[in-house]
Amino acid sequence: MKIRLILISSLLLVLILGIAIWRVITNKPPDHEINIARKMISEAELAKSPKYATGDYLKAALYYDSAMAEWSRENERFILLRNYQRIGFLAKESAENSKNAIANSKRNITKVEDILEIRIHEIEKRIRDFEKNLGSFPIISAHQKEIIACKLQYTEAVQAYKNKNYAACNLNLDSAETVINKVFVIYEEKLAAYLKEHPRWKEMVAQTINYSKKNKSFAIIVDKLDRECYLYKDGKVLSKYTIELGSNWIGDKNQQGDKSTPEGLYKVIEKKSNGQTKYYKALLLDYPNEEDKKRFLQNKKDGTLKPNASIGNLIEIHGDGGKGVDWTDGCIALKNTDMDLLFAKSPIGTKVTIVGSTKSLNELTHPLK
């Protein structure tokens, strides 16, 4: 009996030892799963998941932290009582959420990129439209500085976008958009006020073109806003030239020294060349005409002009242009090469019509595409 008990005890001991050895062998720490989870979290961070897939990334981090905490607790237990199964589960959940975070981050970044790209193009167009339709207005110094800053912010936004720094890109776009929209509204209102005269200008242009067609003659139309001078023959545009104006060109000319270019129906009364003008060649206009004189006297009468004001004269279309800025005292300046062509085609008596714009406000602000 005693031998049997010893044998049974030995067998039980062997069995217990076998189970213990089996448990030690099979219940290994989840090093592989933890390493994968750690690697996936690092990849998620590189994919900017904390910002662009925050929910998935936080879940992945939470599962990973829980796995590490659980592992620490299990390691404090007696080796035969340790259970790493839940740790492996938590690590796998962490890796799966990191995988989702990476995919969603890439997808969300693509959306952000698309949105920013659209905004970049919209603000670029806004700046371009301002310069095309409103940039020729005399702009006060404060607004000029704001526009320069706006362009700089836009350039920095584009560079930030290329560098994938989307937060900086968005911030610069916000600043640029605020400025260009503010200035755009201010000068769009100025443009609208100025273009209230467009119906009258349109009638003047039509009258000049019809005269050219009917009399098979040359005629000149000056568009101050577009900085263009059109030469017509038989009612059709023969050529077009870029011009420069008086530095205070908006509105009609009221008096001598206001540096405004007049608006109205005029004609060439003298052609100057060979040293007769200091501006290469010139076509002298009949400013002031009767309408100008009448308006000048009325402005004096109602107090718009001072009693000692002078109406001025010697308004010409002349050469020495091409400076890229408005610089004359009220005349219309062309490059010398263009002046040669216009001078040759403009006999004395040629009709010259000067208007603020040949286009309406709607045509300028909503051009056909």
Molecular structure report:
This protein folds into three domains: 2-108; 119-195, Substrate Binding Domain Of Dnak, Chain:A, Domain 2 (Up-down Bundle), CATH 1.20.1270; 197-365, Beta Barrel (L,D-transpeptidase catalytic domain-like). Strand 2 (228-233) and strand 3 (236-242) form a beta hairpin. Helices cover 57% and strands 11% of the residues. Strands 3-2-1-8-4-5-6-7 form an eight-stranded mixed beta sheet. The relative contact order is 0.09. The protein is of the alpha+beta class and 369 residues long. The model has no long low-confidence stretch (mean pLDDT 88). Helix 5 runs antiparallel to helix 6 (141-162).
What's the short version?
This protein is α+β, with helices and mostly antiparallel strands.
Share in β-strands? 5-15%
Strand order of the largest sheet: 3-2-1-8-4-5-6-7
Radius of gyration: 41 Å
CATH domain topology of the largest domain: L,D-transpeptidase catalytic domain-like
Give the overall shape: rod-shaped
Q: What's the count of strands?
A: 8
Count of runs of 4 or more consecutive helical residues = 11
Offer a few descriptive terms.
Substrate Binding Domain Of Dnak, Chain:A, Domain 2, L,D-transpeptidase catalytic domain-like, 3 domains, eight-stranded mixed beta sheet
Indicate the topology.
Blueprint: H1 2-26, H2 31-46, H3 49-52, H4 54-75, H5 85-134, H6 141-162, H7 166-194, H8 198-215, E1 218-223, E2 228-233, E3 236-242, E4 264-272, E5 282-285, H9 290-301, E6 316-318, E7 332-333, H10 336-344, E8 351-355, H11 361-365
Parallel strand pairs: 1-8, 6-7
Antiparallel strand pairs: 1-2, 2-3, 4-5, 4-8, 5-6
Helix pairs in contact: 2-4, 2-5, 4-5, 5-6, 5-7, 6-7
